[in-house]
Amino acid sequence: MKWSKREVPASAVKELSSRYGTDALTASILLRRGHSEPEDLLFFLEDDPRYLHNPFRFAQMEDAVDRILLAVDEGEKVLVFGDRDTDGVTSTVLMVEALAELGLEVSWRVPNSDEPYGLSIAAVEDFAARGGTLIVTVDCGISNLAEVERAAELMVDVIVVDHHRLQSGEPPAAVAVIDPKLPDSGYPFRDLAGCGVAYKLAAALKLARSGIYKQQVALLNVQPVNEAYLVEAVRLSNLVETARVRETIVPGVVDLERTRLLPFLRDRQIFVWDGEVQKRLLGKAFGSGIDWQLYDIAPEVGAQIPSARGQSLIRLRELSRIGRYRSEPLSELDVFANLFVSYALKKADWFGDDDLARLQLVALGTIADLMPLSGENRILVRRGLSAVNRSPRAGLAELIQKLGISGRKLGAGETAWQITPVINAAGRMGEPAAAVSLFLAATREEREEKAARVIQMNLDRRRLGSEEWELVYPKAMLSLEDHGRKLALVGGEEVHRGITGLIASRLTNTLDVPAVVASFQGDGTVVGSVRSARGFAVTPFLEACADLFIDYGGHDSAAGFSLRRGDWEEFLARAASYAEGIELLDSEEIIEIDAELPHEFLKPELTELTERFEPYGEENRPLVFLSKDVPIVDAQIVGKTEQTHLKLTLDFGKHKWPAMFWKGAERLERDFSFKNRDRIDLVYKVTLNRYNGMEQPQLEVFDARRTGAPES
Asked: Is residue 199 assigned to a domain?
């Protein structure tokens, strides 16, 4: 294992620390991880949901909202169609609940048993036969062109809410397509999970029920500049800025009619901050003969946001936190616009208790779908997990209780290990409806029954995985040789569809190469999973075979596909050809160090720093520290079945820390000696050891060597 610590200039650390109010250690870690741009830092340093992007930045969001509101007015039947995995399940639950809150008659459907991924012709025709007129797809739909066309023939409208990439051609001819990966989506963040996109639609529907929806609003601000007056205005539609105008007016030189202000403000409600002052300044700029129809919003904003009460925009600009995260300085109009948006969202109760229940689903789906924990995903997941730890929602509470983890503080890692695989197992074992019902069931008794059912399915899946591993592994070893030890590829009727991902992941961990595992289905199709290793990007590999697939999707680290049995041999040939050109990264692991910590930094409060960088996961690994010349107080070889692990007690001066070195038993007395009282250099992460209801900070050691020994 190679240790690597990127150098960062002390001046850059000092500048970031000063601007954003962080300690030097936090600043150095952010810079070492490449986080220096203001908006990037925003999502690491702030938790406020006001910083989330407005859902109406999706170009077609208003079309989707209008169609759903029409369904409410007309009393239509609506179907939510989702996917079988955790992201699809949480998306389905979230959307069903959001639509039911509007009073709609909502049913739901997810692919069951061996049904293919995505909206099906059969589902469309069945829904139309029952008098349904609107389908909302979640976590699927972007590739369902024929199905959407069939729906239109049956007078059924479709709204597509998805996050997968459009594989080729045009998107489906739906009423609206909400997908951040579309080139013209209008949305500034492309890495939302399916449940994240569904959450955005639910949030837009909530705003649509407030008085601000579709209001033609303009914010106006005037300020004196030398002998002239600077007049600025911004248009807002659904709280999204659509246009801005700026005029410098010298009194007596330019008439109002000759400026851009009149057409810009016409037919809009004009809001100002401190109306008396603004009218006086306008009178000085344009003369007193103009009757300005202005609404002073400052008193109402002050009632909702007490910190703004009685303050000028200049003073509020000095106090603004959002100003830290702007490349350009905030103007008074920027401050006004931010205040107005915050006021409108607060008045609409956009972040109420129902929002916390939805965010719990968003956290589960985002973590399970291995979405990057960057950008606004950080706030979504952080707030969602915080809500889980305070009061888990219906369905999740029963699942946590049945799993025996009640009372634990759940981070992203523990959620990914303990909870999302159980929800995922229902779909993999052909019964995703059980997972959806777990969250939607009306009674506690039914939720407890469903929780027990999905837990049992997860146990069955793990057992099945162990049994089939014995069949798959020998074939994988042969395939590994056939592909120049760069790829393992196995497929057959003996592979259960629900565990292709499980087996592929185990192969990559065991063989340290990318793996493909496929299941031959009774309907003549092949369904497979791909997992990455050593820097192999899955997406380009699948794109090289795209013309063979019925459907495919996923990420560079994990993906899936389906194809016809007759195309399997061609797929094998292309995979073999592709493998010849693969350049896998060196299998020796390089561990990136976030900071070298002196002994005095090792105190229990260090956990506060590690928690600040939560959630950990895709594209945000746990913090890794280096400490040198550390005495070993105690060393014990431990393990439940085999004595393979090493339990250490390390002396950092004022504090002694327990440390676990997993699979490190063989290193003791070989690479460093407790008997000889060796001191060690080590790289590690800080975790919490939970035992018998108690939590104790501990270190998990990645690697260690005797102080002064050369790097291996």
From this structure: no
- Hunting for tokens 């039911």 — which residue is that? 100
**Spatial contact of 516 and 506, defined as CB atoms under 8 Å apart:** no
What does pTM read for this prediction? Answer: 0.93
* Same domain membership, residue 330 and residue 228: yes
Give me the pLDDT at residue 712, please. 61
Average pLDDT over residues 683-701: 88
C-alpha separations of 63 from 150, 158, 252 in Å: 21, 11, 46
User: For the domain that residue 412 is a member of, what is the CATH number?
Assistant: 3.90.1640.30
Q: Which domain holds residue 417?
A: 363-459
Position 695 confidence tier, pLDDT thresholds 50, 70, 90: confident
Q: Is 516 in the same domain as 452?
A: no
Q: Quick: pLDDT tens for 416-460.
A: 999 999 999 999 898 999 999 999 999 999 999 999 999 999 999
* 587 band by pLDDT with thresholds 50, 70 and 90: low
Domain shared by 236 and 334, yes or no: yes
Q: Which residues contact 180 (CB under 8 A, 6 or more apart)?
A: 58, 163, 187, 189, 190, 191, 192, 197
Indicate if 335 and 226 belong to the same structural domain.
Answer: yes
Residue of 292, 447, 415, 379 lying closest to 49 (CA atoms): 379
Residue 664: inside a domain, yes or no? yes
272 and 225 in a single domain? The answer is: yes
Average of pLDDT values for 208-224? 93
Do 313 and 227 lie in a common domain? yes
- ∠ CA 218-247-341, rounded to 5°: 25
Q: Other CB atoms closer than 10 Å to residue 361's CB: what's the count?
A: 30
Alpha carbons 385 and 399: distance in angstroms, whole number: 15
Q: Mean pLDDT for the chain?
A: 93
Provide CB contacts within 8 A for 71, sequence distance 6+: 78, 104, 133, 134
List b or e across 190-224, with b for residues whose CB sees 16 or more CB atoms inside 10 angstroms. ebbbbbbbbbbbbbbbbbbebebbeeebbbbbbbe
Q: Would 306 be classed as within a structural domain?
A: yes
In a domain, 171, yes or no: no
d(CA 614, CA 622): 8
Q: How many domains does the chain have?
A: 4
Choosing from 580, 607, 642, the residue where a domain stops is 580
How big is the chain, counted in residues? Answer: 712
Which of 399, 427, 459 finishes a domain? 459
- Whether 80 contacts 99, CB under 8 Å: yes
Q: Which residue type does 600 have?
A: E
Query: What pLDDT is attached to residue 551?
Result: 81
Q: How confident is the model at residue 60 (pLDDT cuts 50, 70, 90)?
A: very high
Q: Is the pLDDT of residue 198 over 70?
A: yes
